[in-house]
């Protein structure tokens, strides 16, 4: 499915583009913990989704992480990315790119608090090259 169309459907259904609010409305638990250098991951145990976010990140980076992991939950619910990366030779690049695109499009779709290109790079930590490749 087209990511932009998916985001519009989510915003219409849940009345927000805030990834924390969407996750809550979808009954996805968010856990804040010390993850060292990792920003976050999601786990799926018996169809119970949990988004794990590094508690040491800034609020903006936690929001980006939540949006990214929400992208995985919505687009790739059957895949456990952490398991695939750690235990297989399966390339997760495609899934990571899709989750990154989902996160960026979700954050840029916030009409109440739109973020600028500069904020995306400097505050949220989104790589400039990614923005150049995937945003109009």
Protein described:
- The chain has 136 residues and is of the alpha+beta class.
- The protein has one domain: Orthogonal Bundle (Arc Repressor Mutant, subunit A).
- The chain is 53% helix and 13% strand.
- The protein has seven helices and three strands; from the N terminus they run ααβββααααα.
- Strands 1-3-2 form a three-stranded mixed beta sheet, with helices on one face.
- Strand 2 (40-45) and strand 3 (48-54) form a beta hairpin.
- Helix 2 (19-25) crosses helix 3 (59-75) and helix 3 (59-75) crosses helix 5.
- The longest helix has 17 residues, at 59-75.
- The radius of gyration is 14 Å and the shape is globular.
- Residues 83-91 have low confidence and may be disordered.
Quickly describe the structure.
By secondary structure, the chain is α+β, with helices and mostly antiparallel strands.
Strand content: 5-15%
Structural domain count: 1
Tell me about the largest β-sheet: 3 strands, mixed
Structural class by secondary-structure content: alpha+beta
Supply the number of helical segments.
Answer: 7
Sequence of secondary-structure elements:
HHEEEHHHHH
The overall strand count is 3
Spatial shape:
globular
Strand ordering within the main sheet: 1-3-2
Which whole number gives the mean pLDDT?
Answer: 82
Q: What is the third-level CATH name, the topology? A: Arc Repressor Mutant, subunit A
Calculate Rg over CA atoms.
Answer: 14 Å
CATH class assignment: Mainly Alpha
CATH architecture: Orthogonal Bundle
